[in-house]
Structure formats: structure tokens, C-alpha cells
Amino acid sequence: MNMRSKSGPVPLGELLKREGIMNEKVRERQRCELVYGQYGQSKKGEDFTLIKPDCERVQGDSISTFSVFAIFDGHNGTKAAIYSKENLLDNILSAIPSNLTRDEWLGALSRAFVSGFVKTDKDFQTKAHTSGTTVTFVIIDGMVITSGSVGDSLAVLESADGSVYHLSADHRLEANEEEVERVTASGGEVGRLNVVGGTQIGPLRCWPGGLCLSRSIGDLDVGEFIVPVPHVKQIKLSSAGGRLIISSDGVWDALNAEMAFNSSRGLPPDAAASQIVKDAVQLKGLRDDTTCIVVDILPQERVTPTLTPPTKKQGMGVFKHMFKKRTSESASNLHDLEFQELDVVEEIFEEGSACLAERLETEYPIRNIFKVFICAICQTELKPGEGVSVHLEGKSRAWDGPFLCVSCQEKREAMEGKRHSRDSSSHNSCSSSD
């Protein structure tokens, strides 16, 4: 940004004044109101939701508020889903260093999601329960949305101009060839159920265990190449806002993203969530728990979305009728500062690798946000020389952090097929499924 006037350099006092006004304008544009609702129909009673709209990055500072929306779709019981609901948020936040600015905090989220998911899985497995869960976990801070997911519960976002963004990856083996390759390279076997005569039926499963997913939390009785490392995506909405849908696979087995948005168009979030679930059940029947959360992210000047469905149009722009459009006058003062923020949707970050060395790396301009003597996964203190670098295999980086404690390093090796710590089971067995 150019702060030099035509008559010469801008005095420091004037520069600070202008920057203060500009930053306040930017903060104002980042503020939003969230209107949300949820609905579900139960078949097994294994779906759980988490909604926390008033979390704080800095305790006691209402300006640092962020919100959490999540779905946990359990299988083989409810214990993994309940444990994840109760502990995952704390595990994510404990992986973020203190005293960060908002931008640094948002930048640290992607790595913290990885640490939090893996720690939650590692801690739960010490309880010797065999249940597992998918997770789709979303943090909304202003207009910035960060989503982390394992399994086949998915989050999708529609911006005000009608563009649809997929915030999570589908980790069903049937739908993800890259994950099939990763699992087999790590020592797992992927195939279908065998019946008499050698006929194969049903979806692709991973053996041992028979799970249809390549990523989850829990699932002690399957191979450790079924990993808890989440796909993470971060996106910044324009000031016009958007609508977020988070649903378990009971919805996505019947509807795609466009169908879900179209079926709920013009409805407030609670009615929208109900309509989406009812449409899914009507198409496929209630064959599984079917749960949906809908969140409208609205400009602060417009808290309540329009209830009357907009006129249907082809292509883009269908959703924008639900939001009040910003006037040109509301941004006119920015021109006085020779500055104007681009008011577009920005896809900031996306990564789905299961490799911890890649996911725990940093690209931030400050490298000291990693505590050198803290395990990057479980956050336990390490004595000097005790930690194992995630870059151990690269001799040129073996001295460089972040570091893992011995038990987290063992888990990493098991996930990557370099150590087998669980018993194998027959290809024909199906002790875990989803």
C-alpha cells in the first residue's frame, strides 16, 4: 500500500492514524452474524453434533470470538464419537501457541487441526474401545472458514454469487483412488467382501478390519494405515457472506451439494436443515443416521436471511438474493486511504496429505511459533535432545523441528506402514464397517 502523498512523505503520526482507520475498516468488513440450525433423523443413534457459537481466542476478549460447528458420525458404537466431541476442540486449541495475532492464529489452525485430530485418536485408542467415528469440524472466525475432516461426513459452502466450494474430502475407499494407493502402499489390503464361490460384493473395504473408510478417529481393530490425519481447507468469504452445510453420509448418499442447496433455498437454517434431511430420507429411505447443520454467514448489517425463496435462475447468482448487497457508499471511505480490499472469495489453504512431515511443516514468516521442546502432537514437554524430528529421514533436516515424543513417533511410523502395532485379521472378517 502506498502511503506517500504528492507533496512528500506522510508524517509518522498521520501514517499511524490512517493505518488505524484502515485496520478498523478491515475489521468491520470481517465481522459477521451467524444464523444456524440443525436437524437429524436417527437409525442407529451414532451421530453427534457440536455447536459452540461463542468461543474466544483470548479468554475474556469478546472481539476474539470464533464459532465451532461439527458432526461426528460414529460406527461400531458411540464411544469414539462422544470422546471426539468432548476432546477434539481442546486438543486443537492446545496445539496453537499463545500470544498470536488473529492472522497468525488463523495461519496456525491448519497445523493445529492435524495435531488435534491425531492426539484425539491416539488418546482414545489407549482406552481399548473398538468404535470409530468420522469427523467434520469447522471453525468460523469472521469471514474465514477452516474445515478439517476424516471420513465421509462432508461440508460444502455456497458463496453469495452462487459458487459452490467443497470444504472436505470423501475418504471412502470406493470414491478415493489416491487413498486406496496410500493404504496398500502402507501394508493394507483393499478389496470387497468374498462370498461362497469367490464372488465379491459390496463397497471397497480395507483389511484387516473391513472398514470402508481410509481415515477416521478410533477403530482400534483395524490397521493403523487407517489414519486420523484430516483433510484441511481454509477459505475467506466475501463480505456478502454465504451458506454452509455440514452433513453426515446419510445426506450425501442421497443428495449432491447442488441438490442440497437447491432444496433449502430461501429457507432459514433450521428449516433448511430439516428440508435437506427429509429430502435425503425420501429419496433413499432412513438407512443410516442422517444429520445436517446449516449455517448462514451474514454481513453484520443483515442478521436474518430472506424467508421468501428467490426467483430461480440458471447458473450463478442464485444465492445472493438471500443477502443484502453492500452499497458502494459503505466502502467509499476506503478510497480516501488509497486502499480497497478485494471483496472476493479467497481459497487460502488446502492440504490432504497423510504424511505428518508435510502437514506439521510451517510456511509462516515467523518460525518461532513452534515450541521447540514440546511434542507437536501430544504437547508434552521434551527434554533437550529427547524429541525426534519429523524430518528424521532427511539427514539435512534431522536437526530441525517440529519434534515428536517417542510414542507419537511410533504412531507416525505405524501410520506410514513402517511399524505394525495391531493384530491382523482375516480378509473375510468384518469387525468394523461404516
Could you explain the architecture of this structure?
This protein is of the alpha+beta class and 434 residues long. 26% of the residues lie in helices and 24% in strands. Strands 2, 3, 4, 5, 10, 11 and 14 form a seven-stranded antiparallel β-sheet that branches. It is globular, with a radius of gyration of 23 Å.
Radius of gyration, taken over Cα atoms and rounded to an integer in Å: 23 Å
Give the overall average pLDDT: 80
**Main sheet attributes: strand count, strand direction, barrel closure:** 7 strands, antiparallel
CA(first)-CA(last) distance? 52 Å
**Percent of residues in helices:** 25-40%
Question: How many strands appear in the DSSP assignment?
Answer: 16
Total of DSSP H or I helical runs spanning 4+ residues: 10
Which residues form runs of ≥5 with pLDDT under 50?
A: 1-8, 15-22, 24-29, 306-342, 364-368, 394-398, 423-433
Structural class: alpha+beta
Along the chain, the helix and strand elements come as: HEEEHHEEEEHEEEEEHHHEHEHEEH
